[in-house]
Write a structure and sequence with these properties.
The protein is mostly beta strands and 114 residues long. It is built from no helices and 10 strands.
Length: 114
Amino acid sequence: QVRLVESGGGLVQPGGSLRLSCVASGSIFRVSTMAWYRQAPGKQREFVAVITSGGSTTNYADSVKGRFTISRDNAKNTMYLQMNSLKPEDTGVYHCNKHHTDVWGQGTQVTVSS
């Protein structure tokens, strides 16, 4: 069973940037499609971005297109989410996910506020 651990969240002003990381245990990471989701207070968890196992294909929610970039380094068992031009509505707990499974990390808090 793969275990996922996120990091990199924090408090940032609008327009700022953060880079989230998701480190996975186990060799299955490199053959897995992986995704980022987020959950704002009082709202349902929503899809943010997804990346295929080799990293050649990515897809984004419309709300983050052009601002966020998902990537991965299979040699390090790590997935990233570079977030630029952050907005207050990007606030939430960001989780990584082995796509279409119940394997989730514990999440990392991102707060965008002045």
